[in-house]
Amino acid sequence: MAATADWHPLGKAYYKKSEVYDLDWDDLVDISKFVVAAAPYGGPLALMRDDSNNPSIAMVVKPIITVYTAAGRKISQMRWNSGKIKDLGWSQTEDLLFVQDDGTVLIYDLFLSFKKVLSMGQEAKDVKVIDARIFSGFGGTGVAVLTSSFRIFMMNSIDDPRVQRLAEVPGLQSAPTSWTILTMDRQSQALVAKDSELYLIDRGGQYQKQMIDISTPVEGFIDMAVSFNNKCIALFTESGVIWIGSADLKKKYCEFNTKCHQKPQQLVWCGPGAVVALWDKQMLVIGPDKDYISFMNDSPVHLVEEEDGIRIIGNSSHEFLYRVQKVTEDIFKIASMEPGAMLYEAFKEFQKESQRADEYIRAIKDNLELAVSQCIQAAGYELEPSKQRQLLRAAAFGKSFLTDYNPEPFVNMCQMLRVLNQVCNHIIGIPLTYFQLHHLTMPVLIDRLVLRKFFYLAIRICQYLKIQDSEGASRILAHWACYKVQQKQEDDEMIARAIADKLGDTPGVSYSDIASKALECGRTDLAIRESMPQGDFFMAIRNLPVAYFLYLQYCRQQNKELMEQLYYQEDNYLEEGNCKILRSFTVERYEERMNMMKEAMDSYNKARNEFALRQTEEQIKLAKYQRRLEEELKRPYMDLSLHQTIYRLIKDNNVKMSEQLRKEFRVPDKRFWWLKIQALAEAGEWMELDRFSKAKKPPIGIEAFVEVCLKNGNKHEALKYIVRVSPDKKVKCLIKMGEFKMAAETAFENRNEDELNSVLRRCIGTDRQVAETINSMKQQLLSKK
Questions:
Q1: 269, 228 in Cβ contact below 8 A?
Q2: Which segments constitute the Vps16 C-terminal domain (predicted)?
Q3: How far apart, in whole angstroms, are the C-alpha atoms of residue 31 and residue 80?
C-alpha cells in the first residue's frame, strides 16, 4: 500500500488517522455512558458514569471513578464519597481535579489517593456552582467556576490558590449560552456569550464587549473551543455556523456552515490548523479555508486535544488524528523530486541491489546533506516503528556518502524514537509523539514513569541517555526506596534487606529521606533502631562535638520530640520551650495545643526569657480569638498569623472584627492600612477601597493604593488615585502603570530632568514617539536654564 493511501486532503494540507492501541477495556466500557477526562501528552483517562439524564439515580448512587492508561489498562478505582461533581480534569502534573457544586476542588493523584482540598470562596459555596472549567494557564493549572448568580470566580493556579472574582456581564439574567477561559499576554480572562453578544471579562473588574467579523446573522453562540496554544478560537452559533479566528477575535480565518443546528458533543482543535466538531458518530474536520473532511466512527468516541493533533478514544480502539508534516509530504508524495524523496528511493533500490540507487544518489549529490536531514525529520513525525526504521536507514545510507557530516542529529533522533517506542508500549501506555516530547521534555517524561512506578524503565532510559546519576538513576532509586517502605504487606526485615541490596553505597541517595518516609508511614522500627538506652546514647554523643551537632541537626529536621528530650537532659530551658512551641503547631486538638504552649511558658520562665514568655502569651491570646472566629464564622483561622487573620477578616467583609483585633494587639496604623488595602483589592472591593482612601489621610500614601490596584490587574482603578498622588511620587506611579506619556508630561511640569531620563530609559525601543517627545522636553528645559 502506498504511503499516501491513508492521507486525507484538507485544503493544501493532509491529515492522517493512525491506530495507537486496541484498548484493554474492550467490550467493558461504552464511552457514550461515561464522563471522560483525559490528560494531554499521552496521559491517563478518568471515567465516571454519566447519570445526568437520570437525576434520581445520581442522588442515590455515588459514582465510581476509574483511572486507565491511554491503552485502557486499569490503574485505580474508587467510589466517590463526597459532594456533587460539576467537572473533573487533569492538572499539568497529572493530578486529578474534581470541582464540586459547593465550590470545593478536591485533588487526587494518579492512584486516586487524596492529596489536598481547595475552595473557590464563600460566595461560590453559598450560591452553588452550576458549571466549571479546568484550564492550563501561564501559572500552571487553573480552575474557573460559574455560580447560580451567574458570576465567574477564577483560580489562576492550584499551586497558588488565590480566588479572584471576575467582572459581571451587564444584563446577564440567565446562564450564559457558552463561556471559556482565554490565556493571553500572561493573563487569564473569561470569554462569555450572552446570546449573540460576546464579553471579555477580567479579574480587575473590567468587561469589554467584543465585536467579530461574521457575515451570517447570529442568534447565539452555543459553544466555544480554544486551541491548545491559546492563539486561536472557534465559535459555534445556533444556526450551525462555525466562526474560526484568532483568540483576540480581531482576525477571522473563515466561516463554515455545518448545516447542523444541534450543538456538537465536542468542539476541539486538531493542532493549530483545523477544528473538529463531533456529533454522535460523525466527526467533521474543518480547515481555515472552508475545506473539510468527514469521518464516520464505528462507535461513540471521545476526543482528546493534543498540541499536534487529537486522540480519538472509542469503545475498543485509541486513534490519533494529526496533520502530515511538510517534510513527510516532500518525501512520500507521488512524483516528488525533493532531495529526501530521491534519497528514500535510492535506499529502496539499494535494498533491491539495483544500479538505479547510484543514479538517484548522483542526482542529489549537491543536496545530499539536506536529503539526510529530511529523512531524519520525517522519521520523527512517523508513529509506526517500521516506517521510522526505513527512514532512518535511508538517512544512514545517505550520510555514508558524506565525508564531513555531524552525526549528532541522527543519533539524537534514534535515541528519542527508541525511548518514545518504549513508553508507547501497551504495558506503559504513554503514546507521545516526538513533537510532544520536545515540549514536555525528557526530565518530565522520566518523572511520569516514576509516578507510575516504572522505576526500572526510568533507570534504563537515564542510563541509555547518559543522564547524570544525581538527576537520573540515584534519584529514581531514592523514589523506589521511599515507595518500598510504604508497602504494608511486607515486613520490615524484608524491606530493609531489599533496600540495602539494591542501593548499597549508591552515591546521591539520602538514607535519611528514606527513613523519614518510613516514619511518615508509622514504621519507626524500620526507620531507626536503638542499639543502646537513650540516656546512655545522649551522654556518649556529648563527648563527640561533630557527631553531637550532626545528630542535633537530624533531630531538628526529623524528630522534634527527640530533640526536646535532648534539651531537657541538658537543662537548656530556652530551646526546650522552642521545641514545645514548634510541636504545638503539629497538634490538631485545640486543648492539647494550649497545654503545650503553657508548658513552653514554664520553660521560658525557668530560662528567665521575658521576650519569649510575652510572645507566647500573645500567641495563646491570638489562638483563643481564632477559635472564637472559627465558631462564629465557620471559616478556618487557626494556624494563621495575626496579619493573615486580619487580612482574611477584611477580605471576608468582617471589618469590625478586624478593627477589634487591631486594637487588642496594637497593630501599627501603617501595617493595618497596608493589610486592609491589599485585602480589599484582592477581593475586588473597589468601591470600599475608594471610600477607605477618603476616610482620612492615608499614613502609607496614596501611591500604595495605586500599587495594589496594579498588582491585582486593575489599571483603570489605579488611574483614579493618580491625581491624589504627591507630585514627587506621581512619575514613578505612572511609569509602573506603563503610562509613559503622562509620566513624561508630569516630569516636565515638575521641571525634573532626572524623572524625564527615568521615563526615557523605559520607553526607548517600545514607544518611539514618546521617546522623541521626551528628548524635545529635555531640550526645552536646557534652554530655560
A1: yes
A2: 526-778
A3: 19
What are phi and psi for residue 349, nearest 5 degrees? -70, -35
pLDDT tens-digit readout, 464-509? 999 988 788 888 887 787 777 776 666 666 767 767 666 665 665 6
Contact between 217 and 239 under an 8 Å Cβ cutoff? The reply is: yes
**Spatial CA neighbour of 203 closest among 247, 248, 168, 178:** 168
pLDDT of residue 584: 80
Angstrom distances, CA of residue 228 to CA of 145, 306, 345: 20, 7, 37
Q: Are 278 and 265 in contact (CB under 8 A)?
A: yes
73: how many CB neighbours lie within 10 A of its CB? Answer: 16
The residue with cell 440567565 is 174
More confident residue, 280 or 526: 280
62 inside domain: no
Asked whether residue 382 is domain-assigned, the answer is: yes
Residue with more model confidence, 671 or 286 = 286
Q: Per-residue pLDDT averaged across 98-119, rounded? A: 95
- State the CB neighbour count (10 A cutoff) for residue 496: 17
> Which residues form the domain of 416?
332-484
- Please write down the long-range contacts of 312-316, taking CB distance under 8 Å and 24 or more positions apart: 312/17, 312/283, 313/23, 313/31, 313/36, 313/38, 313/45, 314/23, 314/31, 315/23, 315/26, 315/27, 315/29, 315/30, 315/31, 316/22, 316/23, 316/26, 316/27
Quick one: angle between helices 473-484 and 511-520, nearest 10? Answer: 30
At 303, list the grid cell.
Answer: 476526543
Alpha helix stretches (DSSP H) within 608-726: 610-633, 642-651, 655-664, 669-682, 686-695, 703-711, 715-722
Q: What is the pTM of this model?
A: 0.68
Task: Determine the Cα–Cα distance for residues 120 and 129; give it in Å rounded to an integer.
Answer: 10
- Per DSSP, the three-state class of 154 is strand
507, 508, 504, 528: which is closest to 518 by C-alpha? 528
Within 8 A by CB and 6+ apart from 539, the residues are: none
Residue type, position 715, single letter: K
Strand partners, 140: 137
Sign of the Cα torsion 595, 596, 601, 602 reads positive
Three-class secondary structure of residue 238 per DSSP: coil
For residue 599, give the nearest of 628, 557, 564, 556 by alpha carbon: 564
Mean pLDDT of 148-154: 94
Q: For residue 66, give the C-alpha cell.
A: 476509574
Query: Are 508 and 469 in contact, with CB atoms under 8 Å apart?
Result: yes
**CA neighbor of 388 nearest in space, from 402, 375, 371:** 375
On whether residue 272 sits in a domain, the answer given is no
Q: How many helices (H) and strands (E) in the chain?
A: 31, 29
Is residue 629 within 8 A of residue 637, CB to CB? The reply is yes
| Predicted pLDDT at 531 | 45
User: In this structure, how many other beta carbons lie within 10 angstroms of the beta carbon of residue 365?
Assistant: 11
Work out how many domains the chain is built from and give that number.
1
Q: Is residue 351 part of a domain?
A: yes
